[in-house]
Amino acid sequence: MTNRTIRIWTLIHKWTSLICTVFMLLLCLTGLPLIFHDEIEALTEEDTLPQMPADTPLKSLDDAVAAALATYPGERPLFLSFDVDRPVVNVTTGPGARPPVSQMHISAIDLRTTRILADLNDDKGFMHVMLRLHVDMFAGLPGELFLGFMGFLLFLATLSGVVIYAPFMRKLSFGTVRAGRSRRLKWLDLHNMLGIVTLMWVVVVGLTGVINTLSVPLVAYWRANELAAMIAPYEGKPVPERFASVDAAVRTAMEAAPGMRPQFVAFPGVRFSSNHHYAVWLKGATPATSRILTPALIDAETGAFTDMRSMPWYMLALRLSQPLHFGDYGGLPMKVLWAVLDVLTIIILGSGLYLWIARRRNTQDHGVVGPGLRTIAGEAAE
């Protein structure tokens, strides 16, 4: 590798790191509590589900939707999702088909009694603030796309760091930390070692984060292509004035896909459905297939089955990247591993910023040295 090549990669590493470091620190710090969001919610939220016999019959989904609408008169149903291990459904309502999140109401409803257990519109709590900072910094879609670009810069910074790591390691054994030398050298060694140790994790979490920030444009592309082809015979039809039974729609979708279970239902007119259909999003019944969703379209006026297609590769990538980004695949042990690697990444980012500041001070005191092979080799030999 020539001196010019190393100089280019060093500049790439320097500037991509400097631009994204502050935002990556924000994402790492907010990501820590989000990794354990299930455990934190279990500790801080009181379970209001009453104890009842296991064989207590369940009410229909239509009864649950009616209970939510009775609580918020003048609104219409938007989504209905299913609790994983409790006889509870979450019904989202709003004044129109696509209201802002601030105008939506989410009600957790006991399917045995149709009693509303909780109002899930927590837009002021600690976890909500952490999530918004992590997702879009309270800036909506522009904030999401900006953080996606920062994630791409992190990937470039990581890649360039690996490239310039090779000449740096020529005179040092792997994992060497020269604790007896200057503070800057000690942090340089620690920065490089932790960077290599966390390399794959940073790449995986960084790239899945970038994919997640593309959720809105990817769903829009899916609607304009895949969904449009599925609902072509219904083109131009308005949203029905009265909806057919959502309970019957879910049963029809499950009959069309034996062995699959519903994860959520999108009502007509919302972003994940069409103007004339229920979109019953089904998932596999095994751990391996439970992350893969398949939409079944049910005519919301007649209740008849319309179409069902597997998700295209880009939507599948989006779906699989979301739990992988937060370590949700392997239970608590994987979450702990994710948290440890997150803390190590915070140390890498902080030490990188410190090294840049220390180098600027050193340059001012002792003159400028070009950022090429002589710089890296000289630091290694100090």
From TrEMBL:
Keyword Membrane attached: yes
Transmembrane segments: 12-36, 145-169, 190-211, 336-357
Top-level taxon: Bacteria
Xref: Pfam families: PepSY_TM
Protein name from the UniProt record: Peptidase
Record has Ribonucleoprotein as a keyword: no
This protein's UniProt keywords: Membrane, Plasmid, Transmembrane, Transmembrane helix
